[in-house]
Amino acid sequence: MSTHEENARQYGDSRKLRARARLNRDYTIAETPWFSWVLRQLDLKSGDHVLDIGCGPGWLWSEAANDVPQGLELTLADLSPGMVDEAVQRCRPLPFKAVDGQVADVTSLPFEDGTFDTGLAAHMLYHVADPAAAIAEMFRVLKPGGTLAVTTNGVGNMRELYELATVFGSAPTDPSAAIFGFDTAERLMRSQFGNVSLSRYPAVLRITDPDDIFLALTSYPPGDRAGEIELNSFRQAIDRAFARGKGALETQKETGLFRSRKAA
């Protein structure tokens, strides 16, 4: 199955994504919620035109609307029409100046040069076959002086969790970080913009329901194609981890936001 076909299967709507998002939503221990933290890093101003590429179902904006100034013009773009429709419906009632939706491929954006004050690619560039081309396209559509923000994970992210998935033949590390982790994000953004900075999100995950781990790690390959024997082994691995943790699994998050500014 090609990358495009797998992405369509995973992200035609938000059902599979919700299983993974539940872990971060319900079990993260942090001073500031993730969505609020991300938007506070962007230094948005009233009247800014913002592109959220790979917007998914728009949770970022609906759950942290109070962390941005009123008067933003928001363009929600995603390769999945279902995600765009869901995001637009979720965000249009919020206090934005304008909310538009656009089905778009990040490596070939349907926008004019210099359109946006801020571009955001939140945990999505590891789904792209050519992330360098994607960053070049986002650079193109930014105004001079505009900012690109990219979020992703480091290879140490939630290691104790991903070690459980080795029963499926996976590596004991975050699969997204192996494709587009901290090192790759820093290198590609610096190469395109000439500058980059990293802000790390300080957080720990403490999971108290083993079923949520099972649902999350069987919502994407290879866990979503596992047979009964592998699934039973996975359940046993989760049970052992919870026994060691006296009823919980705790793991450190390694997540960050990279920012680059286009020369004025």
Task: Report on the biggest sheet.
Answer: 7 strands, mixed
Mean pLDDT, nearest integer?
Answer: 93
pLDDT < 50 stretches: 1-14
- How many β-strands, per DSSP? 10
Distance between the termini: 42 Å
- CATH superfamily, by name, is Vaccinia Virus protein VP39
Taken together, the total number of domains comes to: 1
Identify the overall geometry: globular
Give the strand content: 15-25%
Order of strands, widest sheet: 4-3-2-5-6-10-7
CA gyration radius, whole angstroms = 19 Å
Give me the secondary-structure topology.
Elements: H1 3-11, H2 15-27, E1 28-29, H3 34-40, E2 49-53, H4 59-63, E3 73-78, H5 81-91, E4 98-103, E5 116-122, H6 131-141, E6 142-153, H7 159-162, H8 175-180, H9 182-193, E7 197-201, E8 204-207, H10 210-217, H11 228-244, E9 249-252, E10 255-261
Helix pairs in contact: 2-10, 6-9
